[in-house]
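Posted in: Protein Modeling Q&A

I'm a second-year student putting together a small comparison for a lab meeting, and my supervisor asked me to include a predicted structure for HicB family protein. I've never done this before, so apologies if this is the wrong subforum. The sequence is pasted below exactly as I got it from our records. If anyone can share the structure token output, I'd also love a short note on what stands out.
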Amino acid sequence: MGIALRKPENHFTGNLQIRCPKTLPVAIEKAAAQSLMTASEYVRRSVIERLKADGIDPACPELTATVATAGGSHGSGD
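Accepted answer (user: helix_wrangler)
Welcome! Here is the predicted structure, written out as tokens:
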């Protein structure tokens, strides 16, 4: 197994679930395989990249405090 596919130490403790078109998971798996990474890592990196492009630092400690005070709600349920 290559280095790129080695599981990182489990420092990911959050969980996110989304609804998507049927074809999206297949497309993600294909893109992840082409990039020699897991689908989870591909999605994680894609979301982080988009957040940064939108001017949001996902590593910002203030975000953790905001989620805690908001009751940990994620998304709008759509």
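A couple of things worth pointing out for your meeting: The helical segments are 23-34, 39-53, 61-69. The mean pLDDT is 81.
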